[in-house]
Amino acid sequence: MLPKKWHLPVLLILGTFQSSACGSTPNFIIMLMDDMGWGDLGVFGEPSKETPNLDNMAAEGMLLTDFYSANPLCSPSRAALLTGRLPIRNGFYTTNAHARNGYTPQEIVGGIADEEILFPELLQKAGYRNKIIGKWHLGHRPQFHPLKHGFDEWFGAPNCHFGPYDNKQRPNIPVYNGMDMVGRYYEDFQIHRETGESNLTQIFTQQAVDFIERQAQSQKPFFLYWAIDATHGPVYASKPFLGTSRRGLYGDAVKELDSAVGQILDALKTHKVDDNTLVVFSSDNGGAMVSKDKGGSNGPFLCGKQTTFEGGMREPTIAWWPKHIKPRQVSYQLGSLMDMFPTLLSLADITLPRDRAIDGIDLSDTLLNGKNIDRPIFYYRGNEMMAVRLGMYKAHYWTWTNGLQELRQGIDFCRGENVINVTTHDQRNHTSQPLLFHVGRDLGERYPISPDSIEYHSAMKKISKVVRDHKTNLTPGQPQLNWCDTGVMNWKPIGCEKLGRCLPAPSSNPYKCVWMH
Ligand SMILES: *[C@@H]1O[C@H](CO)[C@@H](O)[C@H](O)[C@H]1NC(C)=O
Ligand SMILES: *[C@@H]1O[C@H](CO)[C@@H](O)[C@H](O)[C@H]1NC(C)=O
Ligand SMILES: *[C@@H]1O[C@H](CO)[C@@H](O)[C@H](O)[C@H]1NC(C)=O
Ligand SMILES: [Ca+2]
Prior knowledge:
Layout: H1 7-21, E1 27-33, H2 52-60, E2 62-64, E3 67-68, H3 74-83, H4 87-90, H5 119-125, E4 129-135, E5 153-157, E6 174-177, E7 180-184, H6 200-218, E8 222-227, H7 249-270, E9 277-283, H8 310-313, E10 317-320, E11 329-331, E12 335-336, H9 340-347, H10 364-369, E13 377-381, E14 384-390, E15 393-396, E16 398-399, H11 404-408, E17 428-429, E18 435-438, H12 454-472, E19 483-484, H13 496-499, E20 511-512
Parallel strand pairs: 1-8, 1-9, 2-11, 3-12, 4-5, 4-8
Antiparallel strand pairs: 2-10, 5-6, 6-7, 9-10, 13-14, 14-15, 15-18, 16-17, 19-20
Bound molecules: 2-acetamido-2-deoxy-beta-D-glucopyranose (NAG) (3 copies) and calcium ion.
């Protein structure tokens, strides 16, 4: 029992949050999959129909068919999601070579700049408690730690779950709980490379359910960024799911994630915060065709992860918010993960920063009222704008899959999909006459519209203006993905001393990162 004199203020505080729980201060959950393709869900046509929870989530909410990531690779896509800005602005790109995808492997020196505003920082100021579960990928050095960039809690890792490493040439990737590391992948958190068995999805799901329960009890608004990675290579699933899918190990991972989504939505219902929680499910980039039969499906779309064809950036997206988003809706809104920034802030009634360009747009009218807003989608690879979509038209200013040298080594981002003069193995400059596709009647970007046609001229007239405006107003940020150094790897993560788990680090030896594609 509380001392008597505290009763009144406590009730007042509860009263405040109670009323906010009824409308003005919604909770947010972003479920961001890793390398999951547009075609991986039953509701998007995957024929095995192994995602009943996600299919049901879509039936209870809104399916967004034309929703994109801001980049075809993990780190830049995630930086764009949290900053609402294209990687070329927020610094998640490289100038070491033209149009190269860069990310944050553990030798990266850079990360998310302090000058960037992440929307969780603004939610936090407004009283939200924010948790990230899973993969951060915005830099692993101490200054880039998520608890220094708007999050109150973290359970997960700064990098991909590659490994195991020998802790001499390369350290294993640390897993953090809060500020401190609590162990490392392959040592304390197992991923069996032969069988694909790992309990990580179970652990990440329990973390989410516990957080929801705690927040529901405290009646304080929350943002949960559930950034789990079972569908990123090496793909994994726990024992009960192994061997259960018609699609092999990748399908086992998807089935476990689907089950986890069901558990999280159930937790919201159990704790009676479902009507006050907007949940958005999506993926950070397209399915990795390079992973062959252990990669996702991009449905009818061309190529996959790493490319600026539709398969690289169109994402399986569902928005769910009982009593706010009407059930069984399909939205053709051109959406972007960057839209989360203005949309969530608008729903939380927080003013947008005015001192910088924000590339995302406020989609609350789309979600709540089915409104369609006209806007372009820009497809970047590193420092180059490769393509633009406006309405049903997509113009490629540059095409590239991956180089011939890599192709000879079996690396193919467009496996089994050779479209002459489109899936080019050289970086081809089409700026003087962009390749134009109608992505409604030609989903697979196979049939370029003739540059001699009236249709081409009328579409390109509009697109050229949008591109001119975009480029005129673009001030590239300081590139964060240029420098690498084996000395900065995860040798001594915060908290390693307490565990006696620090590793000897080699001396610093910075070099320009080599980005092959
Ligand atoms: C997963 O958890 C189960 C039950 O606790 C345990 O038996 C199994 O060894 C764990 N698997 C891995 C790969 O850690
Ligand atoms: C491909 O492009 C080359 C060079 O521009 C051109 O000569 C060739 O005719 C094109 N092939 C097809 C099938 O369009
Ligand atoms: C691409 O082509 C355009 C138009 O021909 C040209 O202005 C530009 O310099 C070219 N870019 C590169 C990097 O070659
Ligand atoms: Ca990814």
